[in-house]
Specification:
Elements (H helix, E strand, L loop, with lengths): L4 E2 L22 H13 L4 E3 L9 E8 L4 E26 L2 E19 L5 E7 H14 L4 H4 L2 H16 L8 E2 L6
Parallel strand pairs: 1-7
Antiparallel strand pairs: 2-3, 3-4, 4-5, 5-6
């Protein structure tokens, strides 16, 4: 089932999500399926649970990694970044909750992440390049951080009229969204 994505202006996007209790992980199958359906419908490559109005530490990713020449489709439960490595690099980054906006965001090129998968296995994996960027973006979401918190004040001021329109729901998207309809 395709779910609506929470738009910028909703308080859930600025709150720290809750850990998923181990006994509840096996109850996430339909949520995860719905998240992938929603991700594909919106042409995204990553989606965090707070973006579908669930305040839990869960995100999904499905992308093609140009560096390793492989598709990475994964579910991350209770993830956290153990360490950052190498250079930082800037790249235009978008967000399904902030449609039609690209911002120049600085991220680490390599990370080590620890997480649980749907079979309750604990993983500690290294990611580089685009996959590391997506993971950092989605972990930001479960920590109540958006790309607007990572961009320059100058860039944020430039897009402020568009942000006001998002909060009011005065934009068009190709996917379902829930707008706050009030200025906060």
């Amino acid at each position: 089932m395709i779910l609506p994505i929470i738009a910028y202006g909703n308080a859930i996007l600025n709150r720290l999500a809750n850990d998923v209790e181990k006994q509840n992980i096996n109850k996430l199958d339909s949520t995860i399926k719905n998240m992938f359906d929603t991700l594909y419908n919106s042409n995204g490559i990553g989606l965090a649970a707070p973006q579908i109005n669930l305040p839990i530490k869960l995100f999904i990713m499905d992308l093609y990694d140009d560096i390793n020449k492989e598709r990475i489709k994964k579910v991350f439960i209770n993830p956290y970044i153990k360490s950052y490595h190498g250079i930082t690099w800037r790249l235009n980054e978008g967000c399904l909750s902030i449609p039609n906006v690209l911002l120049n965001i600085k991220r680490h090129y390599k990370i080590i992440i620890k997480y649980i998968d749907t079979s309750l296995s604990i993983h500690e994996d290294a990611y580089t390049g685009l996959s590391a960027r997506v993971i950092q973006h989605e972990i930001d979401h479960i920590n109540g951080i958006t790309i607007l918190d990572r961009c320059s004040q100058r860039d944020k001021l430039k897009i402020n009229p568009h942000l006001i329109n998002i909060k009011k729901g005065n934009i068009e998207t190709t996917y379902k969204m829930i707008f706050s309809k009030k200025i906060i």
